[in-house]
Automatic annotation (TrEMBL):
Protein name listed in UniProt: DNA repair protein RadA
The gene coding this protein: radA
Binding site for ATP: G120, E121, P122, G123, V124, G125, K126, S127
SMART domains: AAA
GO MF term list: ATP binding; ATP-dependent DNA damage sensor activity; damaged DNA binding; hydrolase activity; zinc ion binding
Residue ranges crossing the lipid bilayer per the database entry: none
Family: Belongs to the RecA family. RadA subfamily.
NCBIfam families: sms (TIGR00416)
Example of a GO cellular component annotation carried by this entry: cytosol
Family annotation (InterPro entries): AAA+_ATPase (IPR003593), DNA_repair_RadA (IPR004504), P-loop_NTPase (IPR027417), RecA_ATP-bd (IPR020588), Ribosomal_Su5_D2-typ_SF (IPR020568), Ribsml_uS5_D2-typ_fold_subgr (IPR014721), Rubredoxin_2 (IPR041166)
Organism: Nakamurella leprariae
Domain notes: The middle region has homology to RecA with ATPase motifs including the RadA KNRFG motif, while the C-terminus is homologous to Lon protease.
Free-text function comment from the UniProt entry: DNA-dependent ATPase involved in processing of recombination intermediates, plays a role in repairing DNA breaks. Stimulates the branch migration of RecA-mediated strand transfer reactions, allowing the 3' invading strand to extend heteroduplex DNA faster. Binds ssDNA in the presence of ADP but not other nucleotides, has ATPase activity that is stimulated by ssDNA and various branched DNA structures, but inhibited by SSB. Does not have RecA's homology-searching function.
GO biological process: recombinational repair
Amino acid sequence: MTSHQSPSSSRTAGRTPPSRSTGGRAGKADRTPFRCTECGFNAAKWLGRCPECQAWGTLAETAAGPAPLRRLTPAMVTTPAVPIAEVPAGAVRARPSGLTELDRVLGGGLVPGGVVLLAGEPGVGKSTLLLSAAHAWAAGGQGRVLIVSGEESAAQIRMRADRMQSLHPELYLAAESDLGAVLGQIEAVRPALVVLDSVQTIASGEIEGSAGGVAQVRAVAAALTAAAKEHHFACVLIGHVTKDGAIAGPRVLEHLVDVVLQFEGDRHSSLRLIRGVKNRFGPSDEVGCFQMVADGIVGLADPSGVFLSGRRDPVPGTCATVAMQGRRPLPVEIQALVADAGGEHGRRTASGLDAARMTMVMAVLQRWGGVALANREVLAATVGGVRVTEPGVDLALAMALWSSARDIALPPGLVVLGELGLSAEVRPPPALSRRLVEARRLGFDHAIVPAGGEAGTAPQGLRVDRVTDLGQAFRSLGNDDGVVHWLQQRR
């Protein structure tokens, strides 16, 4: 007697049913991974765009590798551990570069074996700054300097050096774009300082991908960092930035280096600022000031005159303050203009100031101060193109907006400091005493500051009015605006 099978059972006859552990799918060990040729990211399936480096069409199929070892046996140590007090520290002591403003940000100078990443927008003056620093280093007897350029030829750098009068027998130039050739130049020259312009233009033939890719940038930075540690020379890498202002390349680039500097400046202005973002050898919040001149770049030890207009007669809409750029107090003049709008809605424009803080200050003035800003053009800017984003300039911005809206000029010699709250209270900014000392040094004789905080002795010759809210700030000027009435009623 023959047995009858259903159609479904006949179709599955002779097939091995899937195991319950895999649910009919291949296990992770049997899968063929896909690896990104730019950054090395592994994916279980093919993707059009790499999730790590955001590159298109870089995932390639590779054979599955062996499973990693779960346990590692101890190996022989290369250098035995010693007590921290017995570690010699003289070999990594900072050596001045010759540029005072650059040394201020670096924490005293360049450290042998240390790697510095200098990032900035194209045309801001990174190559000019480092050529000037390299000449100052060689002229100061600090040792031989090697400048390796992957963007310019040696003749082009020589032309810039002639214009800057930066020729020196201990200054060497090389135009290379291969990592092996760069390391060969370092072995041949034996420099004390290496400048690489730039890290995105150097590539290694042993790494897949083009120059500037994630894998190439990471390999170049790692190789130069290892060489700097081994041969004890200072290394400065020039890096590109994206359109958003962030450092181009993988984030691991900032972790590999010891110091990260940001070079900022507007190409329509001669002022340049170099900010410390990361520093293993010193403070990471310092700021250096430079000025572009016809034959190069020079440091500004006292940039106070750059950020003040120098106007003798006061005009409505201007107020002076002292902002902290790193650990340096810098005087800044804030200018505001409140005018009738040409259309239905007024624009709000901020240049050099935080737009969100400006909107908050305007709301406080309109709500509590009785200053009508609706349907009006409101513009605010800083003199000299400096960017100030700290809350310690809120009160000065409020005074400038009020002065322009009321068409009342603030008295000459006045400096205003303080952070403004949403309920019109005023809070003290950090380093208040240092700001007051700097204001007095520049000739200011009247200061409006918040009460509390650093209640130290005011500098001689400076009249200091300590206020708790915006109403007292107006009252100290002899004005009685709407905010004063509101504050009195609230009490």
